[in-house]
Amino acid sequence: MEPYLANRFGNPSSVHGPGREARAALEDARARVAEALGARREEIVFTGGGTESDNLAMLGRWRAVRSGSVILSAIEHSAVRESAAQAAREGAEVATVAVDEAGRLDVAALEELLDGPVVVVSVMWANNEVGAVQPVDEVARLCDARGATFHTDAVQAVGHIPVSVERTPCHLLALSAHKFGGPRGVGALFVRSGTDLQPLLHGGGQESGLRAGTSNVAGAVGLATALDAALTELEAERSRLGALRDRLQARLLAAVPDLDVNAASTERLPHILSVGLNGIEPDLLLPSLDLEGLAVSSGSACQSGSHSPSHVMVAMGRRHDAVIRFSMGWTTTETEMERAVELFVRTLDRVRAATAGGLA
Ligand code: PLP
């Protein structure tokens, strides 16, 4: 990325030499992302991240049609949920599809909803709070057969598990660079040829008219390079992190027998472990873990600071006093995982003892 942040400052929309150089880098990044997903180069739109990609997919599709319903799973990220809420304010009928106790979509319930006129269906590839992988191939085929546009938020999946738009006939797919080691603030939306979208931003004709504004060349280069690296390591990292996650889970269960693993009975992302606990005050536990140097989150980071249970836990019908999400990545080592268990168990015991003794 460095040359494009420092001295290769050309605007890819300019026709002069530095502009052409920047354009070549941008188009090379686009080609690499397309190849990684099994897409065509012209089907990749660079955006300002996962949130923008989800908004462009949902609202862009709704505004291109403006009648009919928008369907989403009950466990979508707020980027999709709030886009659907905005579509509702603009006249869309919004329907939500339930998940089971493991966090997996009820495909039969979705099938019933596909009888009416449907603008877009959104089911995430994998959930960010509990890691549950969704039956996206089945949903994509179902939507395709019924003539409904299918969007999948693959922000948590890309770079971690195999994702291909060749194998999965979705129409729209969102990804975000910072989830696979790339820079923050850049993402992409796959838009299958023939899928009509209204842009969210109005101005120049960049990104085939779907995303006006001078392109973030360094960001696109960073995204493509991180994706290449993540895919080269994908199978090795998937099994390494999956094994690390399984050991983390086993160690925690051995030390804290009343710990409840979320989404335990379904396919999960290798790098996320979500656990529920009762008899604990989350407002005491999380800051105490942070003071010990353990960076975990309560369900989703976007949820922290809010006292209501996350919509994902509600949809799964699970109630715990506290939900803790451990996430790991390519830098996480076995030693760190062992240390995390030690810190977690010690802190949990201390906070529980303090709460029970009324010291809190
Ligand atoms: N979708 C999912 C599933 C996510 O986990 C996130 C980020 O946490 C987003 C969308 C939003 O992506 P970004 O932070 O790049 O806007």
Structure explained in plain terms:
It contains ten helices and ten strands. With 360 residues, the protein is α/β, with parallel strands linked by helices. It has two domains: 231 residues, Aspartate Aminotransferase, domain 2 (3-Layer(aba) Sandwich); 123 residues, Aspartate Aminotransferase, domain 1, CATH 3.90.1150.10. The strands form two sheets. A seven-stranded mixed β-sheet has the order 1-7-6-5-4-2-3, with helices on both faces. A three-stranded antiparallel β-sheet has the order 8-9-10. Helix 4 links the parallel strand 2 and strand 3. Helix 2 runs parallel beside helix 7, helix 3 packs parallel to helix 4 and helix 7 packs across helix 10. The longest helix is centred in the middle third of the chain and has 39 residues. The radius of gyration is 21 Å and the shape is globular. About 1% of the residues have low confidence. The site of pyridoxal-5'-phosphate has 13 residues, from helix 3. Pyridoxal-5'-phosphate binds next to helix 3.
What's the helix and strand layout?
Blueprint: H1 2-5, H2 17-37, E1 44-47, H3 50-65, E2 69-73, H4 78-89, E3 93-97, H5 107-113, E4 118-122, H6 136-146, E5 149-153, E6 172-176, E7 187-191, H7 217-255, E8 260-261, E9 272-277, H8 282-291, H9 311-315, E10 322-327, H10 334-356
Parallel strand pairs: 2-3, 2-4, 4-5, 5-6
Antiparallel strand pairs: 1-7, 6-7, 8-9, 9-10
Helix pairs in contact: 2-7, 3-4, 7-10, 8-10
The structure holds pyridoxal-5'-phosphate (PLP).
Residues 49-51, 54, 77, 79, 124, 128, 153, 155-156, 176, 187 line the site of pyridoxal-5'-phosphate.
